[in-house]
Records
---
Amino acid sequence: MRRIISILLENESGALSRVAGLFSARGYNIESLTVAPTDDESLSRMTIVTSGTDAIIEQITKQLNKLVDVVKLRDLTEGRHLGRELMLAKVAAVNKDQKEEIKRLVDIFRGRVIDVADSTYTLEMTGSSEKVDAFLDELSRVELIEVVRSGTLGIGRGKNALKM
Amino acid sequence: MILTGADIVIRCLQDEGIEYIFGYPGGAALHIYDAMYRQDKVKHVLVRHEQGATHAADGYARATGKPGVVLVTSGPGVTNTVTGIATAFMDSIPMVVITAQVPSHLIGDDAFQEVDTVGVTRPCVKHNFLVKDVTRLAETMKKAFYIASSGRPGPVVVDVPKDVTARSAEYVYPDTMSMRSYQPRVRGHNKQIRKGIDLLVKAKKPIIYTGGGAVLADAADALTELVNTLEYPSTSTLMGLGAIPASNPNFLGMLGMHGTYESNMAMYECDVMLAVGARFDDRVTGELSKFSPKSEIVQIDIDPSSIGKNVPVAVPIVGDCNAVLLEMNAQLKTRLHEINRKAIDSWWGTVNRWKSKDSLAYDSSDTVIKPQHVVQKMLEITKGEAYITSDVGQHQMWAAQYYAFEQPRKWINSGGLGTMGFGLPAAMGVQLAFPGEVVVCITGDASIQMMLQELSTCLQYCLPVKVINLNNQYMGMVRQWQEFFYDRRYSHSYMDALPDFVALAESYGHVGMRVETPDKVDAVLSEAFSMKDRLVFVDVITDPTENVYPMIAAGKGHNEMQLKPNGGDVTERELA
């Protein structure tokens, strides 16, 4: 089953490689991994999307917790949560039909055209991974040149927060 | 007090109460070695290879319970320590490895003797640090010792660039350390302990299965009290030997691939299992799908990730083995009447029937020396009181099977990683820690050649280790597997062109002896052990065809042991 694990870790050099190394050393899946500083400059926030049986997920969370740089973590999928992903896509937009079709799709999926060139449009879209997947499916009708996805960010719903 | 980084490193070791540091100098480490020269509180032991330093520190740590400390230079100094660090990591041994690094401004430039130490060691350390700022050096050293020694112990690397050792800072060594991101749990949850006892007292066919964690937690006394109170059959992993005295009537010997028949059968047939600081390693469990099919498991471990990793556990208890066992013993006092003694007696009847097969019996010989006999003879001469280190292979298994360990921390071997070459340097660490004690390195002709150079260190520091080389002219365990599973195709397991070990030992300034016939074993061993102040290397020419029995082959369960060379297999039917 697909899981979103949110981690607060010490903002130390090498912390990212410890997490990434753990996944490769033990053969766990990583669907996506994002990391960035937080409002507290001593901490980074990492969001990992992974999958596995319940036993494997239990090992993943235990092994992550064992890393000295990991301060706190939560498997967001155990509770109500939100997941969002940002996608940037470059598509061929040569003739009028193509351009209109792209515009229509972008409107339907509530994306934006953020750059226009002679023969390409660059698009931006935010949503759940499923929505991004669906948008990509539709874009297959036009010529996709490049796709850049951020990987999922997650946060608990309501009062649920992972903080110090 | 303002000190240079190099002096800070040494002061930290002094303030940490470190007795010995095992190391080897080099360019990037020169400031630290200079600081070492200007003091005499921490004694430096100069090894002949950095791997030897890590194994020596490791042996010291295993025997004393205190962290072992290593100091090496950058680049090859570091890469040479990796095997030793991984060895300590797999067996959860507290160790702090200080590695010098090229100057900060050269890091990343492929400088002379540069290696990404933090990157290279990352997968085999509990934690590691690169100290970029001299003002954080003392605090980092404290963290290193704290992390290495607490919780589930393990090796910690502190990488210190040369310029950091030259810069100065105010020296303050913290008295205590607490970290928001690292808070090992010591006390077990009382409710979980009660649940564990509920299962234990109701058991009809219980087994107590203990591992290296019981030794590391210094839980031997509490464990033995528990075993004596419950009077349940008890077994131990390779790493746990000595935590329960071998002579304890409840002790069935080692379990696992080369464990006793009664231990493995009891594991297979039991209804309740108490695992104490044991991690259900594949050499212990055999084929997982056939592992202890009828039991409910209570597992005590300080590392939550060890619980339920390989085998589902009914009652997990996260905590220090000693703290949990003390609490268990206290709670048990009022609950002993709940034990079904009749069922336990009947269970012992079954266990004793398995025991009567005498699975460690072997055919003696008048013509060739049986390695098992050598170990038994050593046990007799040393009265079971020696520290025994070993390398890896057949001799390691025979040492574990036939040397009856009465105390913890006396059996020192590389269980998890299985590092050939571990024995001799480990023995140096033990002998330094306990100068008056008998320290024996049981080794083989293949293993000993992996760290032979440390014979020179032994001479320099007058370490009277007894090296017992069970020389069968093969990589014995490799040969055994090739005999069993590769139709006797002995691919590269024959040690052709062995050195004259006696002359070799003598060339290093030690005493060399050789024994080739069974009738001379007693006399030669007695003479070797009577030389209290010399290293004696005894080359024992043993039966080259001898195999380690009993054995659980790969893919087999505990109830499918092979007891003897010829059709000594035991099937489940025979037992029913």
Note: The beta strands of chain A are 2-10, 32-37, 43-51, 70-75, 81-92, 112-116, 120-127, 144-149, 153-156.
---
Amino acid sequence: MIVALLAGTALLLVLALAGAVARGQGPRLYAAAAIVTALSAVLALASLASAPATLTLPLGLPWLGWHFRLDPLSAFFLFVVDLGAASASLFAIGYGRHEEEPGRVLPFFPLFLAALQLVVLADDAFSFLFSWELMSLASWALVLVHHRDRESIRAGYVYLLMAVLSGFALLLCFGLLAGGAGAYGFAAMRLAHPAPGLAALALLLALLGTGAKAGLVPVHAWLPLAHPAAPSHVSALMSGVMTKVAVYAFLRIAFDLLPVPPGWIGLIVLALGGITAVLGVLYALMQHDLKRLLAYHTVENIGIIFIGIGLAMVFRAAAGEEAAAALALTASLFHVFNHSVFKSLLFFGAGSVDVATGTRDMERQGGLIHRMPRTGFFFLIGCAAISALPPLNGFVSEWLTFQAILLGPGLPEWGPKILIPVDGALLALAAALAAACFVKAFGVTFLGRPRSAAASAAEEADRFSLGAMGVLAALCCLAGIFPAVVINALAPTARTLVGAAMPTQSFFHAFVPWGAIIPVAAARSSYDGFAIFLLLVAVTGLAIGAARRLAAHAVRRAPAWDCGFPDPRPETQYTATSFAEPIRRVFGPAVFGAASAVRMPAPGSLSPARIRSALRDRLWEIFYAPVAGVVERLATSADRLQFLTIRRYLFFVFAALVALLLALALTQ
Amino acid sequence: MIGPPVIEALQMALVLLAAPGLVGIVRAVKARLQRREGPPLVQPYRQILRLLAKEVVLAENASWLFRTAPYLILALTWAASSVVPTFSTGLAFAPLGDLIVITALLGAARFLLALAGLDIGTSFGGIGASREAMFASLAEPAMLMIVVTLAIAAGSTQLSTIAAFMLSPAAGLRFSFALALVALVIVALAENGRIPIDNPATHLELTMVHEAMVLEYSGRHLAMIELAAALKLLLTISIIACIFFPFGLGLPGFAGFLVGLLSYAMKLGIAAILLGVFEVSIAKMRVFRVPELLGAGLMLGLLGTLLLYVSRGL
Amino acid sequence: MGLGFDIAHMLAGLMVLASFLLLYQDRLPALINVLRLHGFILALAVAWQAYIQSAPHLYIAAVIALAVKALVIPGALDRIVDRLGIHREVETVGGIGPTMLAGMALVALSLRVMLPITAHADPVSRQDIALALSVVLIGLLIMVTRRNAVGQVAGFLSLENGIDLAAAGARGMPLVVELSVAFSVLIAFIVIGIFLFRIRERFDTVDLAALESFRGERQ
């Protein structure tokens, strides 16, 4: 199995080479990548429940070799990676034609896919970090595809800095884990018993390193810049998949390589998750660039995932709470899957809109549901799923997270007892704001009247793009209607990490012949996606049927009523900014330091009234501005090195060599 | 003995039939308190029938979403109400979902309604959708905190289990429950767009929220929306009754069934009268005072959870 | 455990709730009314403690609380507000939302601190003390977030009510302590009252910002 998977990765590397050489073969290349990753997804799915398999290749460091391992954890994440990769490749067959500079995408896209797969399969620190950096660099190249755009350049710069930070933190973390003997294999790390303080430090470093990749607040600032800058299929991969690989890395280190960490680290993760979720969605609400909105929303979902992980860590640290830990972890993994599906779907939709109207600015769109009905329908499903509406998949994972939160007060310690319900409030706030956010995203983009000429002349996306969106939309529905299947499939992964799994959910349940999922006990809580779906279909049918039979059939089209004052100009509609204004007014002053000023013209004057509003990213000011200043200064001083004579360069090399030898002599 | 499927069918029919009547009672109470004659109790029924008989006037750029949303909204609200124990706890659909699922189903209905408000592209639709989204973003967390309070005390989010717990002596006289009740009433007022959050009777343009979203609807679509709104009112009252006043629920035998029905009718009547009295005696708030009220609801929910830790047996 | 506990818990919880109402109020007359309610609930809570502890001296404390905290001081404050003519809104520092959140965090903190260290105490006094600490902390928060001197006085008095609640809940607190506390509060109140008028005479306002600028802090 693992050999076949690695063969697939190798094929992707070949495709990357081909992409560098062959010109104008974009669709074929994407088709090949789609087939390879789809097969690899099937293989990963098949090995979800199988025993761990390992493989060592004579690559990398000579004494170490290159270790690979496929266990239920990596199989699950490999499935998520490959599902996202296959759908992105499928989408790109059509979408890639609209790319202005395909030569800057084609070599790096397969390379990025291969790197994503390698990270998940790696089983020693060297190969892991190598693949991790490869992933960062390939995606960095993809962010800089539109390299003439100032925004892209800034995004690329910030992204590179954060990638370096993340890699550095992980390097230190693995260094601590390897210990003095330098045991860089994951197998050796599992057996090692680091001192508690050291283990905690390593875990915090891992949280920093993986959080910086996943977009955890406060190390999230690069994400909403970088993700939208790339072409849409790459944005989908970065948001839907790469952040999940970061989650994988954290799970691997926290649950597999390290011994059970103390509960307070779990509480930190929990608190960070809650804050990330709320801040992410609030930032998302303030955006009017569709792709940036989606990127900020990724931050929110990462928060939800980390809430689940934090809960699992807290439960794992408590005695006898394995079942609760399994529930929290399953909820988190379920959300990993869900988010990768619907965020890819939404980015594809945003990409199609971008292609159709030539802009990502929502204020210039509107009414697209008439021009792009299928894209609109799939996008709507994505919006409903990400807003956690039943019976779609997003609801199930958030519901499971809530069920895990509700077990928190049963713990004996007071810290979690108090903090976990507060986190529940944050999660609920984030979920409700997410619904508002996606009413805005869908309503302003697809509904109403077109706000620009381009929007009124938009055309439906091509069939490959639609196919990719359709598959993902179907997955959103299926995973929501049959959640028991997903939960059961996640059982081996949960068992690997916390030593327990949620009770097996049988589709034909003892007391209801449907598909109810029961996290703890039937008297406590249950949710039946399938039955709710059937009920909704039946009741909607009944309502429509009754209306057909009883009501008048006449339909007359007329101008909009609008309380008697219809105004044909599309500017009179609510825009993205005005839709979010009430929420900005409620949360803005506290969270963003929002300020707005209204300038009314004097009575009788015909000049327009103006409202000016400004948001400040306080986290940026606190965390990033000082760092950026230091880096800027260092860079300026390093810049001088570029203009030295050859003799001086030689001197530097010589001095470095002597210094190293001296250091060696002194330490021996 | 009456089996769960029969009770379920009976309940689903009953709630749909009773919902407009409840609205009628509230209106009658308000009219009497304002010394008006007021419409007859059956007026909401007549209105729905009249709307059904009228032709639909659709805006020229209405999309398929606008036309299907009313049916889906009714369906979501109706499905949510099929899970709430009203006069009996033996519901066939009870395992379909807990209180969180009910909240989410209502949230889905609101999501669709807000989208329908944006579909025509009028300024009123936008104002309604945007304000509804703001209210919901505070009301839903408050609701969830109430759920947390109940779940800690009763060890369940399933409504029938909570009702059974509240009837048992273990429930006691906890202050947290009083806080949760107040918070739930605030949430219920916001969910249904009642005074002081929104005025269901107004067509004064700038104060509308719910009415602004449904402004473009007419004919059978409007009938569905009105029915769904009435059903939602009945549903929220039923949830409050089931959690905090579960008297007469879950008694055995046919006699118990009859007692349940009678007490449910009584609870609905009392709630309608209280709502009417409350709405007459209070003024509508400015829109931007509402977040403070809802925020207070959220705080009460949170405080209820915290205080539960120092209450009996925990 | 039983009804006695439940009612004691409810009264203590009501005091916390009244503290939050104080935190929420931004109009002086309403603030004083809530303060009156605060004192009234305190009197009830102390009386209930007297009943369940069968400690007759606590009845005296309850009567003092009723007289001083629910009647005399709020009445005097009313008159001060009347004579100073400050019926307008109190300017609070920071919005209502963050302040309420901070109050919530203080409640959580006091539960987190008090419950573990009183694990073996009698449950009635345990919850009483935990909630009393919340009332004290919220009282401090009120004092911090008010710009107006009268608002700060209200915060101080609610803080003192919290101390009284704790004293009543802790068994075996002698009456003399209660009495001296009540007296010291009364004296403090008189001093503050005199100061308020002095401040007004001198600066024409009781907004503390004026004092700060006088001291040169706001230049």
Note: The radius of gyration of chain B is 19 Å.
